[in-house]
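User: For documentation purposes, I need each entry recorded in a consistent format: the amino acid sequence on its own, followed directly by the corresponding structure tokens. There are two entries in this batch. Please keep commentary to a minimum and don't merge the entries.

Assistant: Recorded as requested. Entry 1:
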Amino acid sequence: MNRRQILRAGTVLGATGALAATAASPAFASESGSGSGREAGRSFRVHIAMFDGVEELDFTAPYEVFSAAGFFTPRPVEVRYVSATGARGVTGAYGMAVRGIRPWAPEEADLLVVPGGGYTRRDSPGVWAEIDRGILPRALAAAPRPGLTVAALCSGVVLLSAAGLTKGRPCTTHHKVKADLEQQGGLVKNARVVDDGDLVTAAGITSGLELALWLVRRELGADPAVNLEQMLEYEARGTVWSSSRGR
């Protein structure tokens, strides 16, 4: 049974019906789509780390998936961009300007997502500049606590490595970065998404969609994930590798 079959197992309401329901009420939730039903009254809080040189699709894809997830679950979903250097704006790898970024506050998050960017341009803004500066890796190193899942995709996983969070842990990253991540002590898996419980990583760029859809499925239920795929007209692909610590 592949991941798509597992993801769809137990679905009691088709995505078309769900979309019609959400048009009438954003509070719609299907019977089986309550992965965190016991926490339905508390927001699922997602923070996405931002820095100059960040890859645009790395941060916009998870932002859209998590934001839209709120249409398919009774549990409120809050998504914000945050920066380890305080409230500010950043400029992405291709020049996109993002304003209104909030201060770093992992104690207020259930999920912290770290995108990548600029890995092949060591003299430009991006992952290497952030590692050299040290502020973001130190903030990431101090972030883990019970109840927080730290996730990253593409070369953002190297930022987690610089923070000491991937050493000895199953993980993945962009195919051109895997050798470096392995040399730094990560237990690299050839999977689209690697779920090791409180550490979830994903491969390159577009895999931010898979990362977000998988975490929606894990935290909010299978129905919201399936319905999101229908809304986005995108089918999650690739293998999700999950350890015994994966939920």
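Entry 2:
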Amino acid sequence: MTITLQNVQIILGLPVDGLPITGRVEQDYDALCLTQLGFPFPKNNKTGGRIQIRQLSRWFPNLPNNVGDVEVQRYARVYILQLLGGTLFARQV
């Protein structure tokens, strides 16, 4: 069994018809990770624009009690990254 575009459409509510959006993106990934997750990723834990999903669970084990909204949003982003990178779009080794 595998994830299909129809599964993605139903699960995430994303449209999957029409022209694809492609192109090169010039992005400062360290700055993006810093603003979205709270710290830049060490050079040995990322390859290009990809993040090693296994490292995220080590850096964000469980959401502590009594944290602010910013920290909750960071943990939510990590959860979504793990969901997409580890479950929906899992890479076969």
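Summary note for entry 2:
The first strand starts at residue 46 and ends at 47.
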